[in-house]
Amino acid sequence: xxxxxxxxxxxxxQEIAAGGGAAPAxxxxxxLGDDVGAAELGRRVAENLRHKRKVRGMSLDDLAKxxxxxxxxxxxxxxxxxxxxxxxxxxxxxxLGVPFADLLGQPRMTGVNLLRRGDAQVLRSLDGKLESRPxxxxxASALVELYELRLTAxxxxxxxxxxxxxxxxxxxxxxxxxxxxxxxxxxxxxxDSVSFPADRPHSYENPGSSEAxxxxxxxxxx
Length: 222
Hints:
Layout: H1 12-17, H2 25-32, H3 35-55, H4 60-67, H5 71-78, H6 86-96, E1 123-124, E2 130-134, E3 144-151, E4 155-159, E5 167-174, E6 176-181, E7 184-189, E8 193-197, E9 202-206, E10 212-219
Antiparallel strand pairs: 1-2, 2-3, 3-10, 4-9, 5-8, 5-10, 6-7, 6-9
């Protein structure tokens, strides 16, 4: 994704490179949405990151090595001094070996899990060209996640490889998509769909003159 993926003024690929440091304070709220939502999401991510790291017996240095994110950046996220971008979240999730949605820190539920449209926190790439809105309650499944992606005209969002065995399925709802996976690319239009191994470098390109919308399903290996 991804939302890690990604991600991402700067280009999308530069956002991924920025995983080694914190986003500028002036861009923080842009990366995670509106003020209140961003602050609450940042708090949940901080608590969840700290808990999952300690449960795994990992130090900040250990996680820095496994994720490619600097110790300083991880510390800032854990102490709620900055909010991470989509790309940074993906790198941390891979380093911890957890699904992307697990970092959002929303409580797991049993029975009927409901996510109202207005309650879904939109994630944005650092350059603001990609928006990712969760369509399933976080924690509802450890194997599947569903997102609505919006990509601005003539822009590209790059994503680093996700955890081993991860697959993605994309349905183009409107506009166009040029999907790049390890040097290969495929062009899709509205109504087309594609699946691919997301544990390889990949990027989403909108070659059209208007915003494109996609459904993105992420399937984790058991």
